Amino acid sequence: MPVQLFTEMPPLRHAAPEDPPSLWGSSPAGDVGRGRTVALITKDNSAGLAVDMDLMDDFLTRHGFRTRRADWRTTAMPVVDIGIFLELYNPRLAQRCRKTVGIFNQEWFMPQWKRYLRTLDQIWCKSNEAQEVFSRYSPKTYFTGFFGRYMHNAEVERTRSCLHVQGRSTLKNTEAVLQAWRNYPDLPPLTVITVKPVDAPPHVTVEGRLPGEELQRQLNRHRFHLCPSRAEGWGHYIAEALSTGAHVVTTDASPMNEHVQPAWGSLLAPSRRFRRYDVHEYSVEPNDIAHAVFTADKFTDDQLDHQAEQARNHFLNRNDDFRRRALKLLEIL
User: In terms of Cα–Cα distance, which of 169, 268, 164 is closest to 219?
Assistant: First the structure.
């Protein structure tokens, strides 16, 4: 494999409309970065990690850091002030960082990396589950939460229809969603966005990979989003759904239930759970999905509009909370 050299960050490819400026105003003021260099170390998977990279690049640049990116498998990297490992870890690259931060997704964290956790200066935990897992191996864990892309577009007409975004993931309980529509063909119309082959019933619309503007339109068009994940590190597709004001149906387990509460969405009790490294995966029942959708569809438009406002506020507040916590941790690093 050819050496992949350490490079400057490219322009944002997964950017979305910013949060309202007032949310930025409550973060600590001043040039926290002071020109310090930060290596964002991960891989470009054209999915969640790429979104993580772009969000962190934009955030750090706004606060005076000089950001670069490194593929986690590279063997060549100049010394930097701070190395931030996003999901993936390489001890050889850590030696090129004066300070190290880990932002790991617990469901994909490799057992062979556990012995290195105590060597990191800070471990930022996106969820309560992440903090519970990583605090077993290091005393330097901090609950930070995380942030997501603000995808709201008020110009898109809302319909009483459902959306399920599988993308490239195998952890979205997509088959349970499809089975719900096989069992109950009178459910509201469903669109599934996936790059994987699926056996969808004829009354379900299946879309492949969509351009950014069309994906944003789809996220805003559907009132109900089906996000019954088996597991998540953060859950960008849940957070983005909330940012549009959708009524989100998700699994009642961390970190999914840290995004959604009954005041603005629906929680599904897991039917089974399975071990995956240090965490659990959860299955849900198709009939429970169907019942949640039928119940949500009974809300009036005014009730759904009120829920939408609460969902967006929750999303924006969590974004702002992460920024404030992250800047405070970077100040003391």
Answer: 164
The tokens for 116 are 């290195």
Q: How far is CA 315 from CA 13, 22, 148, 200, in A?
A: 21, 14, 8, 31
3-state class (DSSP) for residue 157 = coil
How far is residue 150's CA from residue 316's CA, in Å, rounded to a whole number?
8
Helix (H, G, I), strand (E, B) or coil at 77: coil
Name the pLDDT band for 22 (thresholds 50, 70, 90).
Answer: very low
Instruction: Output DSSP code: residue 11.
Output: P
Residues 45 and 172 in one domain: no
- 260 domain-assigned: yes
Nearest-angstrom CA–CA distance, 274 and 271: 11
Task: Name the pLDDT band for 75 (thresholds 50, 70, 90).
Answer: confident
pTM of the model: 0.89
Residues in a beta bridge with 206: 192
DSSP 139-154: S-EEE----------T
**What phi, psi does 256 have (nearest 5°)?**
-60, -40
Neighbours of 130 (CB within 10 A): 29
Range of the domain at 284: 159-317
Long-range contacts of 173-177 (CB under 8 A, 24+ apart): 173/228, 173/229, 173/230, 173/251, 173/283, 173/284, 174/198, 176/228, 176/283, 176/284, 176/285, 176/286, 176/289, 177/226, 177/228, 177/286, 177/289
Instruction: Report the CATH number at residue 187.
Output: 3.40.50.2000
Rounded Cα–Cα distance for residues 209 and 224 (Å): 20
